[in-house]
């Protein structure tokens, strides 16, 4: 895990507490902005169970080992480092349901089908979550039950098409009638990884599977998982609609929000929305150098546009 | 009525006979009386509330100290098809909890920690629906005179007054007379409305052995020889996680199928471990003293303590996992010179001095980031009492812990001529019988004598052990074929 953190900081300028919030998925504007500008959005909400003391312990270790250095502005940085042996490429925390949830739903669905296939009468669901139990049961009745062989075939072809490492970790973390979960330790020993790396592989495999299913590659499984969530909040979307034909101040008045909030909505849409956004005359912002706060906003808007035009998110 | 009970026992559980004590408890409950049941571990405690619940068809609320315990019981009820069961705990989201509380009629068993039961929304829902039977599992946790004391259990008396369940069942495996009195007093169980069912804690089929060795290293070399001499499943207890890991790795390297049990296991990993132990793919479980370990395996042949437990209660709880099938079994403690001083030290560690208690209660916010064991303890207590009450409680708890440790030390260091089984019975049975001590009762032995004695026990044949554990990690194709 320290290796993973080290690589996340390498070549970037992020305050350690901000990195923690990003990995936890704590949604505030400044965390989002720091994630965007540092190409960290894919890792949003990656480690929701990481405890603060454990995280700080690792940061202290990395600083102590001189792998990370503290800059005067309290950010931590390191020279760009060699890519670790394995790195996630499918994670996209901001637009996906929580990995834990996807994992629980998928595991329960497979457990249910496996037990039906093995004609096991008594069913003790692997997850206690009632909403997930309901969801899986509803999906099973509607989509899977009528064509079990087809449902299984779709799942098999999805998993078989994945890279071997991702597929191996994914299926070995599933349970069934006669099948036990392989522990993180067993998988780590088998693959020559650290248990934490195996967990990352698992999360990334879930993300890949989720994207394949959401993209329609397994029609019978589509109803099982919750749909993707839009990255731009509804509130920011509403603001952007109003700004199409009125000023920032008018919009603020109409929505009973501060003008600074409206500007944050613009930045949010600029970072996470479908298109690059430039300042519009219709927003009727004060001229340059009239208001330092607005100039600061302009600076950020321009930085966001540059970042997106330069190829956007760094995907190793 | 006796015939009805036996018919229900056969129909729902597939047994033809009750285990000692079970029928008395069930009969008392069905007559509308409360019950304090002191039944040794492995004697089917949960059946004593499951059968009445099936017969009365009312809601049974089970208070349990540990989430892991609740999960195991819920899983067991689901697998055995004994009625809808749910554990109301932090594993459920708020919405899920509300959906349970809004439709209590859908559930037959509700498991909850004492903290959950005091929540106003939970109390209101249970008051509205009515509780047929309230079970306090591991009831000895309510007594600060027991080493497993949990402050949250103190609130149960108040909860009982609010909920007014039709009947109360307090269940425990080990309770000294003093702890029994405490349980009854705190739960408001009086002689007039309560039946006490109590079985001796004695497990005559378990041979009790203490084996002094010269060092930790000698334990490590002796252990594989013991495992070779014991034909069947073994649970090994450690008091340090790291030590358990080291030994598990060493045993695995010697070709012994070992599993690791600790409180940090994930839900599906616990399930997997239990399944593999049951199926015989794992022969040995290395465990850190994890209270409430969900392993209920009748044919465990031996429990080995690599370090002494902190109390005689712990010792009983641990060895109670051996020989539940009634066949010969062994409880062995390997004792190195440093173990007894360590046990005495552990008993006084972690208790905050009175000055720290006062400082903490005066300004708790100042300690928000403090994670020392002493402050962690105070944070747990703060929800239940004020500074002076906590000082008193902790003084009592500390005294209990030291008394327990002293009792345990005495068990291990008493002259060889003293019968260990008699010591246990004297500590827990209200009217202890006079033990007829023989070589098969208990002993303090050298390693050589221990190995020799193990060859004389009439071990049952254990046909279920598999030689090869299936590869834990499989290829995608093999795994998919196995799943579906
Ligand atoms: Zn004896």
Automatic annotation (TrEMBL), chain A:
Protein name per UniProt: Helicase Helix-turn-helix domain-containing protein
Source species: Schleiferilactobacillus harbinensis DSM 16991
UniProtKB/TrEMBL annotation, chain B:
One GO MF term: hydrolase activity
InterPro entries: DEAD/DEAH_box_helicase_dom (IPR011545), DNA/RNA_helicase_DEAH_CS (IPR002464), DNA_helicase_ATP-dep_RecQ (IPR004589), Helicase_ATP-bd (IPR014001), Helicase_C-like (IPR001650), P-loop_NTPase (IPR027417)
Keywords tagged on the record: ATP-binding, DNA-binding, Helicase, Hydrolase, Nucleotide-binding
One GO CC term, this protein: chromosome
GO biological process, one term: double-strand break repair via homologous recombination
Residues covered by the Helicase C-terminal domain: 222-375
Domain spans labelled Helicase ATP-binding: 26-193
Keyword Signal: no
PANTHER family listed in its UniProt record: ATP-DEPENDENT DNA HELICASE Q4, DNA HELICASE RECQ FAMILY MEMBER
Listed NCBIfam families: recQ_fam (TIGR00614)
The name this protein goes by in its record: ATP-dependent DNA helicase, RecQ family protein
Top-level taxonomy: Bacteria, Bacillati, Bacillota, Bacilli, Lactobacillales
